[in-house]
Amino acid sequence: MKKLVYICLTGLIAFFASCSSVKYNTTRLQSQDFSQYKTYGWLPPVDSLSKSYFNNDIAKGNIIESANRELEQLGMSYNKDNPDILFRYVSIVNNKSRPVYASPHWGWGGPWGFYRPWGMGWYGYGGGFNYPVGSEKFRYAHLIIEAVDRRTDAVVWQARGSAEVRTPEKAINNLPKVVNGIFKQYPVRKK
To answer: What is the spatial distance between Cα 74 and Cα 107, in angstroms, rounded to a whole number?
Structure first.
């Protein structure tokens, strides 16, 4: 029995460790009744001023196809000529930097050494302190999907999925999961 619990816990830890750390945010027009929308259409994607990995046919296809599946599961149908609501997306990839820290635990025995003049315990814990020694550059991507009421031409819902991009190919292949997470934020539940 203990082995089974251990295997299950190890599997859960491995599953959560493998999950991408995509953060989702959403906003909506609070007074809007989203159940009134039965048909949808697409506006062209919004051009962003930042460098975008997602400005290619594969990425566009992954976004639109995934969003169409999600919208159909919400009970909506595609209507090119006279939709109730219009969707569009914008993808943004920013270059960012973050500080890199060092610890005084290095030296006099290494990170797991026996003598630590600034604290005791495992590396990073105890009485020591960390200090910045430089910075590293990284890329952070946002996929934003907006819903526009066709009658009023106003944005009534917007959701964003944001994550660090390590390789463009993996980010493009991960787009269906991000789109799924974005539409979990939509005010109408799946049928």
So the answer is: 58
